[in-house]
Every structure is written in structure tokens, then in C-alpha cells.
Amino acid sequence: MKRLIDLRSDTVTRPTAAMRRAMAEAEVGDDVFGEDPTVNRLQERAAQLFGREAALFVPSGMMGNQIALKVHTQPGDEVILEEASHIFNAELAMMGAFSGVIPRPVVTERGFMRWEQIEPLIRPKVYYYSQTTLICLENTHNFKGGSLYPFDWVCEIIERAHARGLRVHLDGARIFNAAVATKRSVKELTADFDSVMFCLSKGLGAPVGSMLVGSREFIEKARRVRKMLGGGMRQAGILAAAGLYALEHHIERLKEDHENAQLLAQELRKIEEISSEPVETNIIIFSLTRTPAEKLVAALKARDILIHAIGPQKIRLVTHLDVNRSDLLSAARAIEESLQNYQNY
Ligand code: TLP
């Protein structure tokens, strides 16, 4: 069977044999009663890694983000977030539909707001204005190419937001990529956020699941909201075991994904039609000057290589556990040949 090279996302990874064994052997119970020992262990481990009081296992990153929004806000509040962020772009306007809040998006170059851009958007505390209650940040930033939030910008935003009585949530779907790339612990990178969501099912390689971490009070409220959304799971220890395995074995190896992304970017830079954005972690975004992105997607699909168009002439590639150097060299070659063929039509 021909090997499929799937570069659409780091969500496509499949559990390894060792991870599957850990899943098969997991001790389980009913987590809606709080009785699944493996889920409880995963939650304790996540809280410990992030230096927090508590954590909650949720089915997806989106559910984690939306639970945090619901807990931190009241209907009619305003939320300041970046214009290309996942919460604003790829979560089906759920912040409006479920929490009844209004987004105040800020346009940035690499996905990162500065305090000076946020401050003018905060509503004065006057009774006839809606109130700003929450700021959401994303690190690494997905649609800006896995970029890394400058640490001092984050610290300044949190400190000043707290001084104004605002809360700050982190969409840290790929925070472990940020930790490995910056050589700072997740605890340090996320220290003063009021809540953090991170995904087990992306670069960490678990099949399903994300986590929310925060104070005990926040997590107790989050558990109720998870249930409102139908996210109360039963013998979820089978899935939590994969998460525990990922936290134990798959963090350090993210370095390989970053090195592989550099290798791929370097090969792509040799192709005349491609202009690529800076690559900082495991995501590569590039633009095409002539060829429509969908044509390239189709040409590569015919060669068993899957890539993702994120705009009419924009492509995103993501490196992960299930692709190696030789896959990436083959992909770069296939991209080059396909673009040449397209020009020859
Ligand atoms: N991102 C997915 C797609 O939805 C685009 C991907 O392939 O990258 N926050 C960020 C920053 C994300 O990148 C994602 C997923 C989520 C939240 C949502 O996680 P899930 O898919 O578990 O709901």
C-alpha cells in the first residue's frame, strides 16, 4: 500500500502502538460521577504541569474555549481578541450563540495584540455601555503560521488587564509547541492567565481530547458548563490514558516536528512561485503567486499527499508525529513538480 503523507494538520496523528496499549489497559469508571480514576489522574497531572489548582478533561479544544468564555462572561459583555484567532474564526460564532458576547477583534501582523491595541477598546464603566470582561490570546497562533507570542507582551497584557478588572483566557491549543520552542515551561508561559485550554489531540498525538486548567472555582463552574454542552463523558479513562501517555512521552519530541518544519520550509523557499511566512514551530504557511491553491491541493492529492488550502492562494502545512524527513522531502518535490506542470498548461 502506498504511504499517505498527510500534512493538513497535526490533528491527523493516530495513536501509536504503545499509546493504544495504555488505552486498552486503562482503569475506568463513570466520569460524570467523578469516578474515572484515569481521568482523575490526567486532570491532576495537567493541573500539576501548569501549576494550577485544578483541570478538566473536555472532548475538544473548541469546547474548552467556549466553556471558558461562558464562565468568564455575562450575555452582552464584550471580548477582545485577535482577528485571525481560532475562537473568532473557526468556532462557528459560538461565542455569540452560546455566551451572548460581542467580539472586538484586533488586526495584527503575526497574531499578537499589544496592550496599546487592547486598551482603547476597553469600554468605560458607564451603565449604558456594554462591558468588556475578557481578553483571549492564542499561543502558538494557528492561522498566522504557528507563531510565538512574545513573552513580555503576554505578561504586560495580563498585568494591565487584571489591574483593570478584566480576565484573560489563553487558547493554548499548541502551548507545548511554544514551550519546546522557547525552552520555557508551560507553567511559566501561562502563569497568570485566568484559564488555559490546551489540546492533547494535536502535536501531542492523542486521538481525542483537550484540557482546561485554572482555579478550583473556575473548574467547578467549567464542569457544569461542559455538562450543559453534552460534554459529560462516562468511561472516558480510555481516552484520558492516551492523554497521560502523550504528556509523558510526546512533549520533548515536538522538537523534531519543529526541525522538520524548518527542513520543509527551506526546500519550499527554493521554489520560485512560493513566498513563505516565517516558520517558528510546526506550521508552515505559504502563498502562491500564480497557481490557485485548490489546483495544488488536487494535484498533490492525486499523488497521495494531503495539504490544506486556507485561502484562494494560501496553503497551510503542519508537521507532526506521523510524518518524517523523507515524507517532507517527497512533499516538497511533489509541490515543485506540480507547480511546474500547472505553468506548462
Ligand atoms: N485547529 C484545527 C482546525 O480547527 C483549524 C487545525 O487543524 O489546526 N484553538 C486552536 C488554536 C486550534 O488550532 C484548534 C483546532 C482549536 C482551538 C480547536 O480544537 P478542536 O479541533 O479540538 O476543537
Structural commentary:
- There is one protein chain.
- This protein starts with a strand and ends with a helix.
- 41% of the residues lie in helices and 17% in strands.
- With 345 residues, it is of the alpha/beta class.
- It contains 14 helices and 13 strands.
- The structure holds ligand TLP.
- Ligand TLP binds next to helix 3.
CATH class of the largest domain: Alpha Beta
Give helix % range: 40-55%
Question: Spatial order of the strands in the main sheet?
Answer: 2-8-7-6-5-3-4
Quaternary class: single chain
Biggest β-sheet, characterized? 7 strands, mixed
Break the fold down into its secondary structure elements and pairings:
Layout: E1 5-6, H1 17-24, H2 37-49, E2 54-58, H3 61-72, E3 78-82, H4 86-89, H5 94-97, E4 102-106, H6 115-118, E5 132-138, H7 151-163, E6 167-171, H8 175-182, H9 186-189, E7 195-199, E8 210-214, H10 216-228, H11 237-249, H12 254-269, E9 274-276, E10 283-288, H13 293-301, E11 305-306, E12 308-311, E13 314-318, H14 325-343
Parallel strand pairs: 1-11, 3-4, 3-5, 5-6, 6-7
Antiparallel strand pairs: 2-8, 7-8, 9-10, 10-13, 12-13
Helix pairs in contact: 1-11, 2-11, 3-10, 12-14, 13-14
The structure holds ligand TLP.
The site of ligand TLP has 15 residues, from helix 3.
